[in-house]
Amino acid sequence: xxxxxxxxxxxxxxxxxxxxxxxxxxxxxxxxxxxxxxxxxxxxxxxxxxxxxxxxxxxxxxxxxxxxxxxxxxxxxxxxxxxxxxxxxxxxxxxxxxxxxxxxxxxxxxxxxxxxxxxxxxxxxxxxxxxxx
Length: 133
Ligand SMILES: [Fe+2]
Fold this sequence. Notes:
By secondary structure, the chain is an all-alpha fold. The chain has a single domain, classed as Ferritin. It contains 4 helices and no strands. The chain has helices spanning about 1-25, 30-55, 75-105, 110-130. Helix 1 (about 1-25) packs antiparallel against helix 3 and helix 2 (about 30-55) runs antiparallel to helix 4 (about 110-130). The model has no long low-confidence stretch (mean pLDDT about 95). It binds fe (ii) ion. Fe (ii) ion (FE2) binds near residues 22 and 38.
């Protein structure tokens, strides 16, 4: 269950970072970015809940050990890039490592959850990148 608990904690870090940026973002695009970040941390919260409950359904404990230090002092373009990179990293980790691992283990339920997570992260990264232009 190490793989899913590691992903759970990466998702929690990204959730906290997104929420922090929702509060701290400044500049001429404040309103749409404040809203975009709110939508994205809401989607992450739902995914995190599903992931933790999947871990429980598989008979293990959901472990949280989040250390997310976010200053919130970054300028809006840096916030967008930093969040996009975090989404891309999670998507890549799922595609290249976690999904193949659970496919091999014959666990389509977890593969389905992670496949939907990849879609969420790819879409979020696209929206963040598109907002930097
Ligand atoms: Fe808010």
